[in-house]
Amino acid sequence: MRASLIQIAVNDDKMVESVNSRRERVSSLVRAEAGVADLVVLPELWTTGAFAYELFSEEAEPLQGPTFEAMAKAARDAGVWLHAGSIPERTASDSGFATGEGSLYNTSLVFSPDGELAASYRKIHRFGFDKGEAVLMGAGEELVTVRLPETVAGVTTCYDLRFPELYRGLVDRGAQTLIVSAGWPERRRSHWTLLARARAVENQAFVLACGSAGTHAGVVQAGHSVVVDPWGEVLAEAGAGEEVLRVEFDPAKVGVTREKFPALKDRRLGLAAPTGR
User: 115-174, pLDDT tens digit by residue?
Assistant: First the structure.
């Protein structure tokens, strides 16, 4: 399988680049992967910037809003599976900022090569403790997997990476590839690579972790998107700036790894009956 992780540089200054012009630019980047990639992954909240909290409500859109339409068309034009990063989703009942379990969500969109919505995922773990995303957006509740031609992918977002139980739950639902769309800060970049490798090793799965570049509301982004194999080996890693990280990997390696080193069979705690979505 050929994957392209598009590490977008986001500047939340509208005088530099409007959200509409960024959608057009990102659509062009996706279309450029036609014939190059089977799967394209974008970062978290690239329309606004993951730390541009004041823009969440201002730029929030319904699930099938302008970003949905642009990304569906881009996936169809390129003929790729597209994890279109995430958007600040506004539900029909929202009239302003969400509070706690409110009606703004950090929602990821996954499209098939014909431009149909294959999956959507509302981020479960919101970052910020008692401020920012944690109080402005509601929490998702459902684990989401999507069946791709050669693998089953689990869909996760940024801060989720710190919660191994989420990834083990996705494995119980058949996930062999774990996708992370993120806006991870530079000051904790060492955690980003460490956790991506840990999630790969403990779940014997591929991890495709796509971060963003640039600066979001004064927060410098880590970049360094990374692809890790089931043994924890880094197959490819981006630098700090805007970049398209391309890698080819064999999803069959997951089954081989789990057969040769069947650690998952020795689990004693937290076992769940595998179910799919």
Answer: 999 999 999 999 999 899 999 999 999 999 999 999 999 999 999 999 999 999 999 999
What's the domain count of the chain?
A: 1
The verdict on residue 273 lying in a domain is: no
Asked if residue 277 belongs to a domain, the reply is no
Q: Is 141 part of the annotated catalytic residue set? A: no
- Residue 271 in any domain: the answer is no
Candidates 33, 44, 59, 89; catalytic one: 44
Q: Which domain holds residue 30?
A: 2-266
The whole-angstrom separation of Cα 10 and Cα 240 is 12
CATH of the domain at 216: 3.60.110.10
Instruction: Please identify which of the residues 33, 59, 89, 123 carries the catalytic annotation.
Output: 123
Per-residue confidence band for 269, with pLDDT thresholds at 50, 70 and 90: confident
| Closest alpha carbon to 45 in 158, 192, 162 | 158
Sheet hosting strand 39-41, strand order edge to edge: 117-122, 104-111, 81-90, 39-41, 2-7, 243-248
pLDDT in tens, 201-216: 999 999 999 999 999 9
Active site residue 210: no
> Is the model's pTM score more than 0.90?
yes
Q: Is residue 205 part of a domain?
A: yes
Residue labelled with tokens 């279309």: 31
